[in-house]
Amino acid sequence: MTIDLKTIKHISKLSRISVDEQKAEKLAGDLNSIFEFIEKLNELKTDNVEPLTSVAETTLKFRPDKIESENIREQIIKNSPEDNEDFFVVPKVVE
Amino acid sequence: MSDITTQSLSSLVDNIKNKKLSSEEVTKAFVDRSEKSKELNSYISEDFSHAIDNAKKFDQNPNFDLKLPGIPMAVKDLFCTKNVRTTAGSKILENFIPTYESTVTQNIWNEGGILLGKLNCDEFAMGSSNETSYYGNVQNPIDKGLVPGGSSGGSAAAVSGQLTPITIGTDTGGSIRQPASFTGIVGLKPTYGSCSRYGIVAFASSLDQAGPMAQNVKDCALLQEVISTYDKKDSTSIDFKRNQYCKELNKNIKGKKIGIPKEYRVDGMPKEIEDLWQKGIQYAKDCGAEIIDISLPNTSYALPTYYIVAPAEASSNLARYDGVKYGFRAKGENLIDMYEKTRSEGFGAEVQRRIMIGTYVLSSGYYDAYYLKAQKVRKLIKNDFDEAYKQVDAILTPSTPSSAFKIGEKKDDPVSMYLNDIFTVPVNLAGLPAISIPAGHDAAGYPLGLQIIGKAFKEQEILNVAYAMEEKIDFKNKITDWWIK
User: Cβ separation of B236 and A79 shorter than 8 Å?
Assistant: First the structure.
């Protein structure tokens, strides 16, 4: 199968990455050659194989739901591109 | 002074403990050499004056019981360092100053290590040549115009070029072992869960592991001893009995069974790599190991599997870069427009490509065909190793299918770039430990590495094999200092 420009536009929308025509064409070329390479997996029959989600064969550990870091508002907000000292600021979303 | 930077980590530690050298002398020597080595472009951020201050502080009140007493060290710029800029090689994090420290780097500072600066890497560790870094490509100290490998390219160049006595990198598909091989140094990727991922900028969470990069196996073992700890802040950190890797290091590998997987003999592999492998087999025999032919039948499916799993995880990990909480923000007409422009301008081409691949394979209608399929094949690849380890203690392969290539040579062909990781990727998919050691040179005099893959949690075993073989190989790196005027 081939990935057309329409699909590229769709993925770019899902990825929240804007692409112009030129970039979309380049991406289509790259992705098609990568997927051609990935299609090799179809040679394998995997109907009865359990998917491997994690190599760490342990169950996730539970911990008490307890606050361990307090008063870190300033630290959290410190690297934001725009804030009003209490909150992150984003372009207006409600008219 | 000038010979300080040629010393191994172990001898620097001894010299500081025996008061033959001060931390200040050692730190200044590496700072001086780093200052003269700008052309390598190993550093993204330097922290030299701080480092010298910290060295002076150490000398005033030294603690010689520590494992890294007053040892200066630069680290890959993927580790968050408190109050020191951390970019992950990306424009999107150009001004990011973490307010917390990664567990692995904290372990190093707790043992007396001193931060020299942050080392260049491929953007978000996505690359095999260090050419995707927003901060420019890195030169390989072996020769001008040669890539150092990637993604830990700045780290490999800094150890090989003696700008730092030792360093840490991260390895998602070969990012420690491939650059170690390209620059003639030792690099260890530990078992998944051995080193905490807390505070490491995430790429593919089920594959990422931090590990040491060093001039020799002993130094590598010493740093592994420091960085590998159980950490409750990483939910996939594993609480297993860790060895004292350096203390327990020994060269007796007599009777160890070492497997040679026939599927690693790939089409088009240069004769020099095959010859190196044969030489490696002979060295292992000379050390008393028993060589056994084995099969890892699904090896050729590892790379296609990796290029589904890693981008899928990356696409969700990198969703956090939205121009709101931290990092670069582009101006937009509305919220969505701001997101789309921020990510389009903030991420480089390779990162965008991988986010797109990941988004596609996870998208509605394609999940089963790609992502689920890849997870199933990943299981088959892990089964191959489980089966092989019923017969053998470790597996010996080449580290890479070629020596270092020229800057720009593979940049425009993603698939040919991805093929670099053909021998390293299966190890990450199976979560195993593996070490690359320098083992010879090609016709051009560029270094070539051998990889020793171990059973899960058996870092000590592969370190011992590497230690024994290192002595037989007696590799000498050919560094001419061509970049120092």
Answer: no
